[in-house]
């Protein structure tokens, strides 16, 4: 049985894994596939995983907490000494200020490069031949709505038509999963294509209608490097948990991916998600009469303890419901029952009060 801290961490970790870019593009194979197939730059069509070095850790002290999903890569091209920096930013909702955010990143990277070169050769940055490495800013977007933000910095500066010569201007490169149909992605026949397909799934209905060719899945199972399968397993685990699949079933599916049985997995995955959706609907109906269908006393008590933990930290009902992916009305009922036992919050007594009130409501 998991203790409260373990379960709490698991929920937080699931949210962290859901950020997309950091999870996916930390992997050099998947990052190489992104640069080869979605950059639109001929120079990068032959980039290999071994050409890519992750340097994200170097910039963490410079990047603020809300931007901790960024990935920074140093990439060597044409088997020579030429390098550029790939900066991969992830968004799941439209952010109109991202052009300014990315500019800050680019300046951090160039400043770091200059300081390192100055340590190597004092005064080198003042020489005529000194050049900074190019930074290739990529925005990976898998949000539900269309990306409507302007991709240039100039759009964020007032009077840009008058002061245009004096405004630093650039354009970030947008990779929007919605711009790539499943048939197009399947033809890529690689791990990133499957991840982009999964990133586009919004609900159970979309998953149920997903029809991936068996030969496509069999090819990925047979040929994808083990580290890519590990990333796929983590992404699938996040999807399953979103649809309230039990942890035992999640781990079973994860094992099937790692053991290269992917085509069998997706047939079972679809059926399980549909069953879980039926259970979710059943729970929602049950909540209307004050009952929590399909949840054991131990599981509900565990949830009560987690809710109380967040109450002690000043969280709102809305924020708690979103974190635990629970019905807001049900979370509010727990909070109402818990108020009497603040600040220590006895979970067993809260459970009894909650169900005594539900029983009275049913009798009424």
Would you give an account of this structure?
The protein is of the alpha/beta class and 364 residues long. It folds into three domains: 4-179, no CATH class; 198-277; 297-363. It has helices spanning 4-17, 21-25, 28-38, 56-59, 98-120, 160-163, 182-188, 191-199, 204-208, 214-223, 226-242, 247-258, 262-288, 297-312, 317-324, 328-338, 347-363, and strands at residues 52-54, 71-76, 83-91, 135-141, 173-176. It has a five-stranded mixed sheet with strand order 1-2-3-4-5, with helices on both faces. A hairpin with a 6-residue loop joins strand 2 and strand 3 (83-91). It is globular.
What class, by secondary structure content?
A: alpha/beta
- Describe the largest sheet: 5 strands, mixed
- How many domains make up the 3D coordinates? 3
- Roughly how many Å is the radius of gyration? 25 Å
**What's the N-to-C terminus distance?**
37 Å
Number of helices: 17
Q: Spans of 5+ residues with little confidence (pLDDT < 50)?
A: 1-19, 288-295, 359-364
Mean pLDDT: 80
- Encode the helix/strand succession as letters: HHHEHEEHEHEHHHHHHHHHHH
Strand order of the largest sheet: 1-2-3-4-5
Question: Can you give the helix content as a percent range?
Answer: 40-55%
By DSSP, the count of extended strands is 5
Shape: globular
Percent in strands = 5-15%
Short recap of the structure:
With 364 residues, this protein is of the alpha/beta class.
């Amino acid at each position: 049985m998991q203790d409260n801290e373990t379960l709490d961490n698991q929920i937080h970790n699931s949210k962290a894994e859901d950020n997309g870019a950091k999870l996916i593009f930390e992997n050099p194979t998947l990052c190489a596939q992104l640069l080869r197939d979605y950059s639109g730059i001929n120079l990068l069509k032959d980039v290999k995983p071994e050409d890519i070095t992750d340097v994200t850790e170097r910039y963490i002290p410079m990047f603020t907490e809300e931007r901790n999903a960024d990935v920074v890569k140093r990439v060597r091209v044409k088997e020579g000494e030429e390098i550029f920096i790939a900066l991969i930013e992830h968004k799941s909702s439209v952010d109109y200020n991202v052009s300014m955010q990315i500019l800050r990143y680019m300046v951090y990277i160039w400043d770091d490069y200059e300081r390192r070169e100055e340590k190597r050769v004092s005064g080198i940055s003042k020489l005529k031949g000194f050049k900074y490495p190019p930074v290739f800013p990529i925005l990976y977007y898998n949000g539900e709505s269309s990306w409507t933000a302007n991709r240039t910095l100039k759009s964020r500066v007032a009077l840009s038509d008058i002061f245009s010569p004096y405004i630093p201007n650039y354009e970030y490169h947008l990779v929007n999963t919605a711009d790539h149909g499943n048939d197009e992605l399947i033809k890529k026949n690689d791990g990133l294509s499957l991840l982009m397909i999964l990133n586009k799934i919004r609900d159970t209905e979309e998953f149920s209608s997903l029809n991936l060719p068996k030969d496509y899945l069999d090819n990925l199972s047979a040929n994808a490097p083990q580290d890519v399968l590990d990333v796929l397993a983590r992404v699938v685990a996040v999807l399953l948990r979103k649809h309230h699949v039990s942890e035992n079933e999640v781990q079973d599916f994860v094992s099937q991916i790692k053991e290269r049985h992917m085509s069998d997995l997706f047939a079972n995955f679809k059926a399980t998600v549909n069953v879980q959706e039926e259970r979710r609907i059943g729970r929602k109906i049950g909540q209307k009469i004050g009952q929590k269908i399909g949840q054991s006393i131990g599981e509900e008590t565990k949830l009560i303890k987690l809710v109380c933990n967040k109450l002690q930290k000043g969280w709102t009902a809305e924020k708690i419901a979103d974190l635990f992916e629970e019905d807001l009305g049900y979370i509010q009922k727990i909070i109402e029952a818990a108020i009497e036992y603040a600040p220590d919050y006895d979970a067993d007594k809260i459970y009894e009060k909650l169900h005594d009130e539900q029983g009275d409501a049913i009798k009424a």
